[in-house]
Amino acid sequence: MRLSLLPILFAAAIANDAAAAAAPPPELQPITRPEVVKAAIANAQRTLKEQLAKDFPADKIVVREEVGLFNTVVAVAAFPDAYPGTGVKRVPIDATTGVAYGAHGERTLADFAREHDWLAKPPTVADLARFLNTALYEGVAILDSEPPPTLKVAKSALVIELVRRFMPSHAGEWLVVTLPKEGPEMIERRPMQSLPR
Fold it and tell me: What confidence tens digit (pLDDT) does each residue in 86-99 have?
């Protein structure tokens, strides 16, 4: 007597579909992080909150984390009622090692660039602009897309040129950020008319 496996396989497939439907989608599942990264996020949030508390009521400051670019998690402290563009501090943290980078980190943005071999394989200009905004300007700098930012490798350094705007005047300046082969990043601010495209 031959038994068909089809009903058994069909039942197993239905059971698998039911289990998949009951599970939350991958993007809603909790993120598991190494203990060193959890500790780094908590330490960064505490430090950022202490810095903000110099200007805003400490009991009103909230902390959170955001998903960052290039396998980072961003520790954030913010005063929700602050004027737009103020009352927030951010620091990107490597989601594997727990090392923090940028203005509030233990290492510089240039360190991050070298560790990711950006001189040989640069990221897109859009991604680099977003990441340096987070690392150096709390993620609140108004970076204009017109004229578009440029990215080039020059003299053993990665150089990004972009326009930063200010509200409410909409006045602007050029930011020239150099990520060298050695040492920290260099930031040069120039009047709009001084850097012809």
Answer: 999 999 999 999 99
